[in-house]
């Protein structure tokens, strides 16, 4: 009998141990499940907080206003006499002003509880490129490089014919002294008149108004007549200098001494 009781006691102890062993994994699984269930709740709360918080992107407004101004300027240049490159040179200062306003607003609202502020780097990069090009364009305009390049692209070879009105040579004139800035050939004529004929070939962006240019000037001193032959205005400096090639002929009355200087 005592042996049977001892066996029953040992069996009960084994059952208790098995029950404890089976309960241990279940408790561990419950302990592991509790944080998994809490994580989605925390994420939902964070998302809800972010949803209530407004995020302001520094640079977006500046980019929008800049693109709007560029479109207006280009459209206005098509309908009016406004040069697009002159108006676009003002985009740079406008960008700096707008971006400065956005930074000041950032400093004002950076500590607000429901306002999140961050930089829109793509927009800032875009306006940075536009402002840099605007500054470079303004420098080209202010230094005259843009006008020089535009003038060089518009230059072409032109020619103009010279036919000066005859100048009466007094009877007492025995000598004519010619001062010329270009090559001039002289010929004798059977009239008592002095006349300049020929043509000028030049490179220029604009046509020459020859009526505003006086190529021949005379002055008589005693028995000597001084003849001054000039040339058209030209520009030797710069990237695209003006070139002038003249073919002029001076007709002088026969029997008069001619001296070239």
TrEMBL record:
* Top-level taxon of the source organism: Bacteria
Keyword Transmembrane helix tagged: yes
UniProt keyword annotation of Membrane present: yes
Annotated transmembrane regions = 58-82, 88-107, 119-146
- UniProt keyword list: Membrane, Transmembrane, Transmembrane helix
What is the name of the protein in this document? Uncharacterized protein
Q: Which organism is it from?
A: Insulibacter thermoxylanivorax
């Amino acid at each position: 009998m005592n042996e049977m009781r001892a066996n029953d006691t040992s069996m009960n102890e084994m059952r208790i141990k098995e029950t404890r062993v089976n309960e241990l994994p279940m408790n561990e699984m419950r302990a592991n499940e509790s944080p998994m269930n809490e994580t989605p709740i925390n994420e939902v709360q964070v998302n809800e907080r972010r949803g209530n918080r407004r995020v302001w992107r520094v640079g977006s407004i500046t980019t929008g206003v800049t693109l709007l101004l560029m479109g207006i300027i280009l459209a206005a240049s098509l309908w009016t006499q406004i040069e697009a490159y002159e108006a676009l040179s003002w985009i740079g200062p406008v960008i700096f002003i707008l971006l400065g306003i956005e930074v000041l607003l950032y400093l004002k609202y950076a500590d607000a509880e429901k306002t999140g502020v961050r930089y829109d780097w793509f927009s800032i990069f875009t306006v940075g490129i536009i402002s840099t090009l605007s500054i470079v364009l303004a420098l080209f305009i202010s230094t005259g490089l843009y006008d020089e390049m535009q003038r060089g692209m518009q230059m072409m070879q032109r020619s103009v014919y010279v036919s000066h009105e005859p100048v009466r040579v007094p009877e007492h004139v025995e000598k004519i002294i010619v001062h010329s800035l270009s090559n001039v050939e002289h010929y004798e004529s059977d009239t008592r008149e002095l006349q300049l004929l020929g043509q000028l070939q030049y490179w220029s962006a604009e046509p020459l108004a020859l009526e505003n240019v006086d190529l021949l000037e005379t002055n008589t001193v005693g028995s000597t007549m001084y003849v001054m032959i000039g040339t058209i205005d030209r520009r030797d400096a710069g990237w695209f200098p003006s070139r002038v090639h003249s073919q002029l002929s001076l007709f002088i009355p026969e029997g008069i001494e001619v001296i070239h200087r």
